[in-house]
């Protein structure tokens, strides 16, 4: 996949969640613009164009980052903190998409500057609805400043 | 020296002094009365001598036996007077008395000679006798004169002696009284000093120790009763200080143990939080996968499934949803124990109405009515009490779904320093023999087909009320409705 055309960066370690999410996005013809990374470290490499993504350009920003909180290596809150505290990347919209209903996670995320916080519903119907709505909103409706 | 000993010594000194004074006064008085007696005797002697002179003249005039007898009688009484006076050896009085007695004897001799001369005289006057007679008479006069003067001196001496004794007595009495007073004052002052000063010290010490300074000691070193009292007092303080120290030590140890336990509890709590976080996050993910892929199966491969296959898949999906609800309720229940409480006054009538309206909006197809009786305001965490009312009211609505007209009643009253509230419905009720099971986690009295639910709601109610220090209980009868009570302590 050509990473320069990436509009959605999906940061998710659970393969079934990845598959289900991609399935929903596919229905709206958004799947070919999605790039999936499996842990926090890879997400940071992608966003800051380092490591295995050093050929990318840092100003080729995705329209939205869908970020799970519980991730291997570097956790979601740390990814969020790094993205939002760097001048080059702080304007990238980040949506936390997590199973956690913990109050503390919500509070911390908003303090770090998250753009949205979505709890993944267990019910697949509701899950489908949520993912398609937020995909359409951030990719098609929302206008980023870059 | 003890205070008692001091008082004893003072008493002995005073008694001794008083005795000395008494003895002195007794002897002085004795000598005084002796002097007075001597003076009166001396006066009598003078009188006697004068009378003798007169009787001598009488005798010379009458020259008879009777006059002579009178003279001798008088002489004897004077002699008795002379014996009466007792003078000490070598004193001036003794001297005077000696001369008086000598003169007295001499006048007796002279008078005897005179009587002899007069007896010899004939009727005619003999010149020689006359002369002898005159000589004897004048001798008598001279001697008696000397006696009078001696007696006068004696009287005078006695008077002087009396005055002297009186003077002596006066000054001695004054001195004695002065010395007595001095002894008493000195003793009193020293006793006061040895009692009052240490008592003030003791009193100050008591105050200092009373204020909590147990290190203070009363410094009284005197070896009397007060000293003993101070020593006992200090000993008592010492013991109290030791007790206090032991208590402090026990307290410190307890504090350490509490800190240890708290740390253990905090660690356990953290573990529990991590656990519930995992439950919240990780248990949900596979559930979503089961539900999602069941849906995928239906959508993508539905044409290869018959009706029964489709039904079975839907059962799988229903159960995943229910599992999700169970996880959510369980998490709510576990969070309740950790959530901090912010207590304030709660308008229970407003809260009940508010909760009921929301429940009513969620079930527009049901014709729900609620009767609110008087509800006293409560003291508690509003969000938690809202949870209690929400659970009780939604239960009341749920378990009366089969009734044609739903009547839900809430009310409360203040009784024995606590507020008692109740939520009453006319629903299916319950068998009282299961009333203890009602509030247990996942405890249900109805099947999932009859009434949906996880069986956590009443456990949540109980947990919240217990955290507020209140009680919960229920009364009911099958098909006759149920009433749930809870109490909240006053502020």
Structure overview:
The complex is a heterodimer of chains A (146) and B (491). A five-stranded parallel beta sheet of chain A has the order 2-1-3-4-5, sandwiched between helices. In chain A, helix 1 (15-27) crosses helix 5 and helix 3 runs parallel beside helix 4. With 146 residues, chain A is of the alpha/beta class. The longest helix of chain A is centred in the last third of the chain and has 18 residues, at 124-141. Chain A has one domain: Rossmann fold (3-Layer(aba) Sandwich), CATH 3.40.50. Chain A is globular and about 40 Å long. Chain A has helices at residues 15-27, 40-48, 76-85, 103-112, 124-141; strands at 8-11, 34-37, 64-67, 94-98, 116-119. Chain B starts with a helix and ends with a strand. Chain B folds into three domains: 3-195, Four Helix Bundle (Hemerythrin (Met), subunit A) (Up-down Bundle), CATH 1.20.120; 214-338, no CATH class; 341-489, Histidine kinase-like ATPase, C-terminal domain (Heat Shock Protein 90). Chain B has nine helices and seven strands; from the N terminus they run ααααααβαββαββαββ. The model of chain B has no long low-confidence stretch (mean pLDDT 86). In chain B, the strands form two sheets. A five-stranded mixed beta sheet of chain B has the order 2-4-5-7-6. In chain B, helix 2 (65-84) packs antiparallel against helix 3 (92-120), helix 3 runs antiparallel to helix 4 and helix 5 runs antiparallel to helix 6 (307-336). By secondary structure, chain B is of the alpha+beta class. Classes of the chains: A alpha/beta (146), B alpha+beta (491). The A-B interface holds A 14, 16-17, 20, 23, 69-70, 98-102, 120-125, 127-128 and B 277, 280-282, 284-289, 291-296, 317, 320-321, 323-324, 328, 331.
